Amino acid sequence: MRKRRAREKFLSAGLVEESRIILNGSECTVQHVLREDTDRDKLAQSGGKFAHYLCKILDVYFSYHHDSYCMKGVYLHDPTALLAAVNPSLITYTEGIVRVQTIGITRGLTLFYNKPKRFAEVTEWLDKPSVKVAVTVDAPSVLKLVMERLTDS
């Protein structure tokens, strides 16, 4: 209940209409992977202090992704979100209304509506603010930038 009141207070404050909300969901950030076999070796062989530190702590992430997703690599969620803020040209966006389920078995499910239809009747989609939602990422460029930053650190 406290979260619902906080959300309502935020929305009623008009902050949504005054600022541009940008959503970079996991559908966008899973489009590229730091590979365990090739990228990790490059990081280990580089002179970058952050690259060396990252190599020391990556085991837990590689294990998690291997066990959970049957893959030999890690998704770059956080670096992609940061790079989207620094260089938005790496991301393609579309606009629409986003709703998040707050109760029941679908709690946390995000719904996105970006159709041009105007509703004649009152619906849960009526008069909601539009947000920018990331739909694609220039994955090779993001990976290249991440690797460069880490190996040159």
Automatic annotation (TrEMBL):
GO CC terms in record: cytosol
GO molecular function terms noted in the UniProt entry: purine nucleosidase activity
InterPro entries reported for this sequence: Inosine/uridine_hydrolase_dom (IPR001910), IUNH (IPR023186), Ribo_hydro-like (IPR036452)
Protein keywords: Glycosidase, Hydrolase
Keyword Hydrolase found: yes
Family, per entry: Belongs to the IUNH family.
Species per Swiss-Prot/TrEMBL record: Camellia sinensis var. sinensis
Protein name as annotated: Inosine/uridine-preferring nucleoside hydrolase domain-containing protein
Domain Inosine/uridine-preferring nucleoside hydrolase residue range list: 21-143
GO BP term (any one): purine nucleoside catabolic process
Xref: Pfam families: IU_nuc_hydro
